[in-house]
Design goal:
Length: 157
């Protein structure tokens, strides 16, 4: 994934056009944009809507429905904390609140130094090892405050 802060409109149009022959092209277009830029640029919404003959509200609705789509660039590292019931039942809520407080962030925000983006996720499939966290693509189970502190330190928080 290459992250470009100012996407070129012509490049976005080309990327969108390359998916128009697919049946149900909206999700493949959104995935391609996120892969290319690291997020879905706001300017792409109107381009997608025009290309698919749908409203910008419909495009935004799909982007906001799926938690993995981003509307802003992510930090160098992404921490996802499980918010499902199994994790909540063994301290996941407190872990999430403490982590957000330590970072001075709310969900979907990125630290000022660009090191960490924090996101909620609604099941990582590690229910037996709850609370669960995903750091970039690495799953971690039985995460407590000390383990999270070590993760944050390692990532430069």
């Amino acid at each position: 994934m290459s992250i470009t802060t100012v996407p070129n409109q012509s490049d976005m149009v080309d990327l969108i056009s390359s998916h128009l022959d697919l049946e149900g092209p909206l999700l493949p277009i959104l995935h391609a944009l996120q892969h290319a830029y690291g997020y879905i640029p706001a300017a792409a919404n109107a381009l997608i809507a025009d290309a698919l003959n749908i409203t910008k509200a419909e495009v935004h609705g799909v982007i906001s429905f799926y938690h993995d789509f981003r509307e802003n660039p992510a930090g160098k590292h992404v921490i996802k904390i499980c918010r499902a019931e199994a994790c909540q039942s063994v301290g996941g809520t407190a872990l999430a609140q403490d982590t957000l407080k330590k970072l001075g962030l709310d969900w979907h925000q990125t630290s000022a130094n660009g090191a960490i983006t924090i996101e909620p996720v609604y099941c990582l499939g590690l229910c037996a090892c709850a609370p669960a966290v995903m750091v970039d693509d690495q799953l971690l189970g039985r995460v407590d405050g000390a383990k999270m502190d070590a993760v944050l330190k390692e990532l430069g928080a």
